[in-house]
Write a structure and sequence with these properties.
alpha+beta, four-stranded mixed β-sheet
């Protein structure tokens, strides 16, 4: 039986951040002589939302074209406000490159593999949105493109590309009407949003651009036509169509039988609308565990050395030399020869922890 040892090798780098140098404190006598500026010590006014947005727009203008595209197009719907603000305040190209690398790494469901499935799926969604939802502007800019890129394909789609006759469900008041083209997307579950998420997109301009709507009545092509497209209660004379425009829940739906709590439902729709337009949540706890955990094996004592040989202006050959002492390994007699087998596994990572290469090798020692 062969004797074997597992020899893990981790070639990694750590990037440590620290606090900047503290401001030197002046002697008490000197500070007493200095006159404090007017307003010093008073609480500073927080910048308004408009001021923050104006500052962000200015910072975006100052970005190089490639970084501006990455921020404003590639990750527009998945980057959090905190991440965006942090990116805009980076000062060097190196910092931005490290940020982008870390941005994808923290979303990678399998960080131990070379492929980043989240990034690959994200750009696949952008390509699909541009191909499927374009309507006078790129598909990624449309409402359907935005939802698709952020949350992925829905579990079910009910499509009415031509509109036409429509039997309202009871929750919309019942009765029949005619509609503009519309689609209903159903997600069984969206993290940070909830279960059974129903989203409706309507094309009221017949231009092919479907808009996400909170109001199910927006698809009603007869909404403003008196006496047409009546609901069940309106047909029975128990409600008037003009009452639709007096609702306080943000919709123009007909009155339903036994309707109660419509305003509360309006708040629920508004909350749903706000949640689906937020970037999907990032699992920060998982990220923290990933970047703070260090695995160390010492199954077999060894020494390792790396050399650097420049091949071209942009490439360097890095030989990795591993040395073990014969006294630390076990030899087995096989066909008159003492043999030992050592299995080597190595992993190369970037400064931010992203895996770029793994390798395996077998070292055989014959005596």
């Amino acid at each position: 039986m062969k004797a074997s040892r597992l020899l893990p090798v981790l070639l990694s780098f750590a990037l440590a951040g620290g606090l900047g140098p503290a401001r030197a404190q002046k002697p008490a006598e000197e500070s007493q002589k200095e006159q404090k500026p007017l307003g010093e010590g008073l609480p500073q006014r927080e910048p308004s939302k408009k001021e923050q947005e104006r500052r962000q727009k200015q910072l975006i203008k100052e970005l190089e074209a490639s970084y501006k595209k990455w921020l404003e197009e590639d990750v527009r719907y998945v980057i959090t406000p905190e991440e965006k603000d942090a990116f805009l305040h980076l000062n060097s190209e190196e910092e931005r490159e490290q940020f982008i690398e870390q941005f994808w790494l923290r979303r990678d469901p399998t960080p131990d593999t070379l492929e980043n499935e989240f990034r690959e799926e994200h750009y696949r969604r952008i390509a699909y949105a541009n191909e499927r939802f374009a309507s006078g502007k790129p598909g990624w800019r449309t409402d359907r493109g935005r939802i698709y890129i952020a949350w992925g394909p829905p579990d079910e789609i009910e499509s009415h590309p031509s509109g036409g006759a429509y039997a309202r469900p009871l929750e919309e008041g019942g009765g029949t009407t005619s509609t503009y083209p519309f689609e209903t997307w159903r997600y069984r579950y969206l993290e940070g949003v909830g279960q059974e998420v129903i989203l409706e997109f309507v094309d009221p301009t017949l231009s092919g651009e479907y808009r996400l709507t909170m109001d199910p009545s927006e698809k009603d092509a007869l909404l403003h036509v008196p006496g047409a497209g009546l609901s069940l209660l309106e047909e029975m004379g128990l409600a008037n169509k003009t009452q639709r425009f007096d609702r306080t829940d943000g919709t123009r739906l007909p009155t339903r039988m036994g309707e109660f709590g419509g305003q509360s439902e309006g708040f629920d729709r508004l909350q749903l609308y706000a949640n689906v337009l937020k970037p999907p949540p990032v699992k920060f706890a998982d990220l923290e565990a990933l970047v703070t955990t260090r695995i160390s094996f010492n199954l077999l004592p060894f020494a390792v050395r790396t050399d650097f040989l420049r091949i071209t202006d942009e490439s360097i050959l890095v030989p990795v030399t591993i040395a073990v002492k014969k006294k630390d390994v076990t030899f087995q007699l096989r066909e008159g020869i003492h043999q030992s087998v050592i299995n080597v596994f190595g992993r190369v990572t970037t400064m931010t922890g992203r895996i770029v290469q793994t390798f395996e090798d077998v070292i055989r020692l014959d005596v």
